[in-house]
Every structure is written in C-alpha cells, then in structure tokens.
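ok trying again, last paste got cut off:
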Amino acid sequence: MRSVIAALSLFAAGPAAAGDAAELGILGFSADGAVFAFEEYGIQDGSGFAYANRYYIETETDRFVEGTPIRVLSQEQDASIEHARAEAQRRGAEIVSEEELAANRGFTAGANAVTEHSAQPLAMEVNPRPVFPPIDPPLAIRLEEIAFEVPENCTFAAERHVGFRLLKVSHEAGVATELLHEDESVPASRSCPLGYRIGAVQTFFPEGGAPVFVVLIAVRRVGFEGPDHRWIAVPGKL
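nice, full thing came through this time. structure:
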C-alpha cells in the first residue's frame, strides 16, 4: 500500500471532547534522499497507553520501506512516552541509523500546528530553502478533500467520510500542476477520517542528487474521547 495508508486504530466515540493529537517529529532523510522518516507519539485516548510510531517512506515510490511502519504501544498505564519512543527508535535503527537521519534532516520550509487557527489548512506555499533572494521557484501545495460514502463501521460516529488529493501547483508558464496523490477510496487503516490539513513541508537537497520534498498531513479522525489527529506523508520531487 502507498505510504499515505498509515495503520490507525479505530475507537468508539465518547461524550468527552478530549481527543488525542499525536506529536509530530521529523527525523530526516537517508543521505541520498531515497528514504524519509518521521515519528508520531502521544498518549492514546481511552486507554491512556503511551504510543510511538515511526514511518520510513521511499521518496521515489511513495511506499513504506520493507519492515515498516514501526509501532509501539505500551500496555501499562505508567509506561512513559519516552520509553515507547526509545523502543521505536531502537527498532528503526536497523532501517536507517539515527545518526544518518540527524545529519540529513533537511529543511522545514513550512509548518502549522493542528492548533493553528489563522493558517490555511488546505494550502501552503514556501521557499524550498533558506536562500535569499530565493534561487528556487516557490513550492506551492494544495490539498483538496474528497467526500466518500460513510461506511457502516463509521456511521455510529461520523456524518462525513473523506479522502484527499494533493497537488503541486505551478505558477510558471507552461508548467502543469502535478498530482501527487489522489484517493480512489479511503483506506480502512485511517479509521473514520473527518478531515485533513497540511502540517508541514520538509525539503532536502542531497549532495549530488535530485532534491525532494515531503508534505506532512494531519488526519483528523473519530476518536474515543473526541477527534484524534494522526500523521501521514506524501513525497515529491522539486
């Protein structure tokens, strides 16, 4: 499955509005830019268990690296997020070392937290790297939500069920807008998605290689105590 299909556990809706918004951690790229890695972590609503997930994505194919994602869910109430993250990191070191990721983190060209009210949730335009005056064309990203029929397993809690398409929009004459991703259906692994927003754009210019970028997208979904947020990523070429 494509990398945007992240495994997301389904929870029953509850009366309290205290959903679980996973923290996003951008880990970096392999030295050649062929792999991008990020993590999400937090305390699972309903169970109170700490979790940490790591995703390793092939930037050329938009697929998970074999043997990933890595998911850790602590089964003890007093287990810490730090413990879950450390275990996920230990397992991920076999895919790409932490040192290599840290040395090739790339540049966060744009970022908006899920708590940001003034940001445009479905669009972001950035200078791909901190060079002024810019030497690169602007990177403009647009996200469009796609309505699908609400499946039976989501009707108890959701009045909408949405997928998305992601576009790289060109402002240059003669350069067409590029389709980065379009859902033909909503993967069950996203649980019951209610909406999406662009959370960050990470760029990387590998030495001697083609520059790449990754769009981090927050998925708002039905949770146990309120809407949850989880993260998916879509890569592209600059």
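cool. Helices lie at 81-92, 98-103. Confidence is low (pLDDT under 50) at residues 5-17.
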